[in-house]
Amino acid sequence: MRRSLVDPDPVSHLSDMLPPALPLVDSFGRLHNNLRISVTDRCNIRCVYCMPETVRFLPRAEVLRFEEIARVVRAAVPLGIDKLRLTGGEPLVRRDLPRLITLLAEIDGIRDIALTTNGILLAPMARQLWDAGLRRINVSLDTLDPTRFEQLTRRSGFEQVIEGIHAAREAGFHPVKINAVAIKGVTEDDVVPLARFGRDHGCEIRFIEYMPLDAGDAWERGKVLFAEEILDRLAAEFGPLEPAPDQDPRAPALDYVYTDGHPARVGLIASVSRPFCGSCNRLRLTADGKLRNCLFALDETDLRALLRGGADDEALRAAIRASVAAKWEGHEINTARFIKPARLMHAIGG
Ligand code: SAM
Ligand code: SF4
């Protein structure tokens, strides 16, 4: 409805027209409904592209308690947040995680809760996670070669991850998605075996282009195994793939299907070669309660200070809104202006 150009009381008129809480739309028109929650910065392995061997983790008192996380989510639901993903660090090292899932699943308005895990602790927990209300799971696994697994993670645990994937399927998670970081000269030979594993075991493999969020300055563009190269490798082995007809335009992964009739899907998260910032709908809450409006954000909003300082839900919502309003157009990995965030991936929550 258009307002008359001559409005005797424009302010009250406008407030009459507004819904009780406006959705989270940023200055580029992107609607935000997806909150990724890091439940810990700790991890039981040390992937070379994510964290250094020696890390100073957050003191426990600085980490949000489950009730604090649930309070942020409850405050954010009227703003349109309805999808959650729990991540970390490694979320399964956080004691009692199923209790948090139950708390979040009980919040009216939350319609989807997912988890990203390295899978090492998954096998004994898969059923409990399902029973708590979790319905979607991504397991990170970059290789099916146990030796390369140890080189990439600086730890053992390959067999547990495989057991975790099977246990998740048995518990009811379909499909289990597998995230594989694609690094040139390191994981090229893993592309086809991982895709074959996905085809054989009903998993969707999602290849993620290596991003500059690791410790030190190991990342360089030349080390990114690009989505196009991955597709070429897959096509050489299985025949051409084509974009999935039911693509979700807001999802980070470009989904592909095989043309040989096999029902498996392959996802490509081309964060470097084809950034998807234009359709980004995500916010991130770090384990220490900082809201980040982008994986690569340089600024954060301190929700923990508000939570522990006695702020009411309206104040939390105002802070969330301000963070979204300040969101930039997109990351600048492909430009000379790119500045790497001070936080490493494990401390942001991927
Ligand atoms: N520990 C859990 C795991 O590994 O699944 C959750 C946290 S981890 C930071 C989330 C995702 O980020 C994983 O799939 C991991 O492979 C990915 N990741 C970490 N560092 C990355 C990087 N430098 N580039 C691309 N993906 C990365
Ligand atoms: Fe841990 Fe996940 Fe980072 Fe690997 S990618 S070190 S599993 S947080």
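qc> Confidence is low (pLDDT under 50) at residues 1-19.
qc> done
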